[in-house]
Every structure is written in structure tokens, then in C-alpha cells.
Amino acid sequence: MNYYPHHIGDYITATAHLTMLEDGAYRRLLDLYYSTEKSLPRDRKALYRLARARSKEEQAAVDVVVEEFFYSTDDGWFHSRCDEEIEKARVLAERARANGKKGGRPAKAKPSDNPEQTQPVENDNPEETQWVISGLAKHNPNPTQSKPSDNPTPKPPIPIPIPNIKDKAATAITSTTVDPVDSSPPPDPQDEIAQKPQVCYAVLIRQWEKTRLKASNTTSSDPRLSVWAEKGVTEAQLREAYDLAVADRDQKQDVTAVNAGFLDAFLAKVLNPPTGESALKRTPAAAARLPWAATWSGIVAKGAEMGLTQGEQELSPDFKVRVFAAANFTDDERAKLRADYGVVV
Predict the structure, then answer these.
(1) Assign residue 254 a region: left if phi > 0, alpha if psi is -120 to 50, beta otherwise?
(2) Both 271 and 301 in a single domain?
(3) pLDDT tens digits, one per residue of 59-96
(4) Would residue 43 count as lying in a domain?
């Protein structure tokens, strides 16, 4: 894409907390994402090179931005809002391409001031031209017709009747035939996008999170949304699961945005209340098992395993940070914890 819409209000709301360096890194990554229309590389060195981040401060800004606004898969770092705008542009391009194959929009015929009057026949002899237009034989003029005088008295023009000529060539002179054109309005690209449930799910979640002043990373390319579509998840069911997810966030005083991974667990409860089977077809036991980093008891147990204990004056968040630092998570593990469980490492 050589052009993409920049919604200033949405951008400022989502990035007001960034430093100037982080904001610049984010805009540079957005330009890269839109210009290539593909995910950003997972390899950090390759990502730094594409973002032209050379100093440690610049590279740290790229790390902050990519982990907050993008989500990681095996294919790279994806951005939900960018994917939606690229999809809209693709729909518009396909529609324009289809119109081009049909010859484009037909030109409108210019209305004539006098449709009853035929086009004049060019001739050096105006008298002969008059014979041709009026349909009279040139060599058999009306003997009663008087010859025009040298000083004729001006008279109002008399309309000349168009002869009923069946010849196609002559008919083409007196009338213009235009092929019938479909006057129905062109399809709205929003309607075409709305036919894809995955896009609807992503748009709804982003809109709901926007009311909470959050920026959700949910995108239509997330495989969970495809499974939701296969199961026929309705907007009411999605909203019920979303409200449960928000209530859980509020209860734990977690300010992280609700994403597809976190929402999937609550949607499973809505779809299958008895068993809690995940919409991603996980078994109930697997769905109930949480990683140690997602629970306080797990963090304490992991700290003890590494020989770390919470000091008497040490706050719980500080101890949590110390355990996470000692665990030495990989980039993939950080991304998975954030996407699936809302845990920011």
C-alpha cells in the first residue's frame, strides 16, 4: 500500500503514554507493515535493521512498541488494525479491477437541445443539403416550390420531420442506442467485509475495548476467530464472554486489554457450560491448566524452585518482577503469555 488512513484520534488515545522515541519507532513500524502488507519478522536483529534502530535506546523503543501493539505467531509479528485496513483496501481494489474488466463506467450520453432535429449533412451546396434532410428527391423537386428571392423575408424555422428510414446506417444518424447499464449502487466494501465472521469478531472486540480506552491486538487472521466462525458464534455469545473477561480483569485489577487468547477461555464457558471445552477444541483439563506465571501460587513455587523467596518488606509486584527476570523468558514465551493469558512479562 502506498497510502493508508491515519486516524489521529484513535492513534493519540492508544499512544499517549509513549515517549517520543517510542512513538517514532511505532510510526516507522506501521509504515513498514503497510508498505509490505505482511507481518514483521520475529528475529529481532532483522526487525531492528528494517526499523533502522541502531542505538540501544532505539532498539529498546522497538521492543516496547512491538510487544505492546503487535502480537506474535509462527509467521511473525501481526497488527490487527493494519490487517483490517489492508483488507478494506483489498476489497476496494478487487471491485475496481472487476469494473475495469467490464470496460469501466459507461460515458453518459450528452442530451441534445433539439432531439427532434436530425444532424445536418455536410455539403458545399446548402440547397442540396436541404433536399437530403427533408427526404425529397433532388432531381424531382416540387414544381410549385418557389425559388428563394434575393431578399427573402425572415420566417420562423419550420421543423423538418424525420423520415421513417429502416436502413440501420440512417437510423444511427437520427438516434443513439445505449446499452442498458445496471443502475444499482456499487457494493459497499464494509458490507463485503461484514460477510466474513472473523472480521466482525475482530471489529467488535476492538470497538468494545475502545470504550474502555484499551487497544486490543485482536485481528481477523487469528486462528481462534476462524474456529469461532466454524462454531457459529453469535454477537450475543461473544458479548457474554467479553463481559465475563472484563469482569475477571477488573476483579484482578489487571489493566491489560482483552485479546482473543484471553477471551477464548470465557467463550468456551459460554458455548459449553458443562465441560468448559475451548472453542479451539482443547480438552477441559488443558483449558483449566494455567502456566505458573499466570497465578500467584505458581510464581511463588517457581521462585522457590530457583531459590528465590519474598522478603518481609518486599512488595508482591517487586517479587513477581524478580522471579520473571530470573526465569529468563524467550520472546516466544513472552508473546504467548501475553496473547493467551494477558500476562505481561
Answers:
(1) beta
(2) no
(3) 999 998 988 899 888 888 898 888 888 888 888 888 88
(4) yes
